[in-house]
């Protein structure tokens, strides 16, 4: 789960995921979306792949990437569960200690 949220922390990787939501893309097409070097884009794709958010498939001399929805659904499920848990309990203010009742 930590790798998944780390992967989602960078705006370029979130943009790649948004683009892949429309369907699989060749690595060259993904790289063309950005004003950064090919190795930098490849690094972002590897982080997404290591987190399980994208899958890569070689087609001839190119690599096509597609979104792995099950990993994205796992992250969303975790966040929804966290929000539901947090809504049902009162929030404590940091640094404040309660006096014991007599």
TrEMBL record:
One example of the protein's molecular function in GO is: DNA binding
**Residues covered by the HTH arsR-type domain:** 1-87
**Keywords assigned:** DNA-binding, Transcription, Transcription regulation
Sorted alphabetically, which SUPFAM superfamilies does this protein's record hold?
A: Winged helix' DNA-binding domain
From the UniProt record, list the coiled-coil ranges: none
Q: Keyword Transcription on this protein?
A: yes
Keyword Transmembrane helix tagged:
no
Q: CDD domains given for it?
A: HTH_ARSR
Q: Which domain of life is it from?
A: Bacteria
Q: Which InterPro entries match?
A: ArsR-like_HTH, HTH_ArsR_DNA-bd_dom, HTH_MetalResp_TranReg, WH-like_DNA-bd_sf, WH_DNA-bd_sf
In terms of Gene3D superfamilies, this protein maps to: Winged helix-like DNA-binding domain superfamily/Winged helix DNA-binding domain (1.10.10.10)
Protein name, UniProt field: ArsR family transcriptional regulator
The source organism is Piscinibacter terrae
């Amino acid at each position: 789960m930590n790798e998944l949220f780390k992967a989602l922390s960078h705006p370029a990787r979130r943009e790649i995921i948004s683009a892949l939501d429309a369907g699989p893309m060749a690595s060259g097409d993904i790289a063309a979306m950005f004003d950064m070097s090919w190795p930098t884009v490849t690094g972002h794709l590897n982080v997404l792949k290591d987190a399980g958010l994208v899958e890569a498939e070689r087609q001839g001399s190119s690599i096509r990437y597609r979104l792995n929805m099950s990993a994205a659904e796992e992250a969303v499920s975790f966040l929804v569960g966290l929000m539901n848990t947090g809504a049902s309990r009162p929030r404590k203010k940091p640094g404040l200690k309660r006096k014991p009742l007599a």
